Structures are given as C-alpha cells and as structure tokens.
Automatic annotation (TrEMBL):
PANTHER family: CALCIUM AND INTEGRIN BINDING FAMILY MEMBER 1 (PTHR45791:SF1), CALCIUM AND INTEGRIN BINDING FAMILY MEMBER 2 (PTHR45791). One of its GO terms (molecular function) is magnesium ion binding. The keyword Metal-binding applies. It comes from the Eukaryota. It comes from Stylophora pistillata. This is Calcium and integrin-binding protein 1. InterPro entries: CIBP (IPR051433), EF-hand-dom_pair (IPR011992), EF_Hand_1_Ca_BS (IPR018247), EF_hand_dom (IPR002048).
Amino acid sequence: MGGQHSQFTEEELKDYQELTYFTQKEILHCHKRFSQLDPDTVRTDKNAKLSSRKIMTLPELRVNPFKDRICRVFSSSKDGELTFEDFLDMMSVFSENAPKSVKVEYAFRIYDFNEDDYICEGDLKKVIQRLCGDQKLSNENVNALIQKIDIVKLLEIARQAKQLAMALLNTKGGKVSEGFLKERFFKAIVSSIKKEAEL
Ligand SMILES: [Ca+2]
C-alpha cells in the first residue's frame, strides 16, 4: 500500500503492535508523524534519533510545561533524543487506549526530576514552579505562591498517602503492585497542589 509500509517488515509491525496500545494502522500513522519532524533524516535511516528540540515541536508537547522531562523519560539513550521506538512508546502511553496505571507510572517518572524514584521536596517545588509558569505569572508571583504553599504539609500528605497505600498493600497480602502505591501517592500530591494553588 505504498511507501510508508515498505519501511517496516510485517514482523516489525507485529512486534510494535505487541509492545504498544496501537493498531498497525496507528503505528504507521505515528511513523508518518515522526518522519514529518525531520523528513530527510528519517528517510535515510528509519531508526534515526531525533533531538528533543525537534520532538518538542509536536503540537501535543509544544505548550506542555514538562515537555523536556517527557522527552527525557521516553529517551532510551537518556539524553532526550528519541528513536522511532521511543517516540512510539511515548505516543502509546499518551493514547486513550493506554491504561491509567501506565499513565500514572509515567507521570510519576516525569515529576521525579532527580530520578531517585521518589517525589521529594525539590521535585514538588519544580512541579509547582512549572505549573505556575504555565499560567504566565511573574517570577515574583511564582515565588510568592511557593511561599504560600506549605511544602511541609504537602510532604506530610504525601507520606500519609504512602502509608495508607502500604497498609493496603499489607492487608491484601502484598499483592498490590508498586504502580498502585505510586498512584495513591501521586494522586494525593496532585490534589494537594491543586487545592493549595487555588488561592
Ligand atoms: Ca525524586
């Protein structure tokens, strides 16, 4: 069915289908979008890596305050550059077919700025700063808002949420996944931030 198809074997398409929440048609559409970011490079090498600068021009990412973190989290080389497979992973996680638990896991990783698998005070500050930045507040206002937000209280809420999740984990015989624990933790943090920011 034309040029786009010939870049992948049936086998490759089947593999991609198994590894994502996409149909083969959607995978080909993703490849088309990946190619459009840098047609010349992708035409000569279908496994080419594209810079985060190019990836961030995608309409879905352009206005996202965490776009650099998103590129970083999905970059298999951890430098923010994305291969087509990385790009496909990213699009798949953001697609409506991806389960919420998967989305939460990635949200957690995006907010975990120092990548120590824990949302600490520094991470929270950065999240707030970026969310406020998106509302076009001046630096002064951002600082004022951060002053108003009780980080200690937020951390306490987060700790409680983690304890609650741990308790649930124990009562269910340790069968609850780490993803579930993170979801509770993450939800509590986000709702606290929202509440505190509505000042
Ligand atoms: Ca962290």
